[in-house]
Please model this.
Amino acid sequence: MFKQTFKLTLVTPIEIRRWLTTLRRTLREEGFLTFLRRVASPLFTYNSGYMYEYKLDGTDEIPMVPCNVNDIVVRPLYIPTMTIFEYEAWGRDAFDFPSHPHAQEYKREPGISRGMLIFYATSGRDFVHRTGVALSARGGTAYERVWRRIRHPSYPLSCLDDGHTVYGAFSLTDAKYRRKGVYAHVYSKVHRYLKDKGFSRIISLAMEDVAAGIRIRESEGANPFLRVYVITLLTLFDFMWVRPCTKSPLVESGISS
Model:
């Protein structure tokens, strides 16, 4: 069963730093009025989303989804020292992850679950897309905070770093390559790669106000199993609670398909 809880959690320093970085960029690129609105928004914000599960071990063959970008290359990188917080702190910056000093080829080692697998897509010299999955969701991540509110045999706390489950992180597509099917193409390669490496499932969180993320997860066959609600006060405090998700968010929330 799922445990219904309502708990106060401190926002992490990484999340505060990311918010400050966003404010500086907003002031520089969008003007003072938009900056003021962003400053006021953390006084009280409400978000909700859906937790998805994609089972890799139940898929006989993962189809390759084409995209409308010539010569796209998706390069998997493993950074063992990086956490999901550090990865997502880059936000919308097109950081050159292949140049990271700890970037290396991933070689699976039994019993070791740490770091980030990053999938970095280019076309020629152009950056196209990046996405990442965390090999562990420990350390106060949103996934761990949700898991501590669940009491269900299929989702024990031990699966946060069980060596078979990975956790979806922020994805970014360069503006020039959007609406070309890049996300679906990259993720078809991600799924194949993870399955070949012996992972059995991907857990990801899709926010309700990002309809495209929900539609993509539904189209690729991921199953929603949890509804997550978060209220943030004064940037510093999160109130989170969860409930089972019994039907598709496309139906439950009336999201246009």
User: Anything to note?
Assistant: Helices lie at 13-30, 32-40, 84-88, 142-147, 182-196, 211-219, 249-252. The domain at 7-252 is CATH 3.40.630.30 (Aminopeptidase).
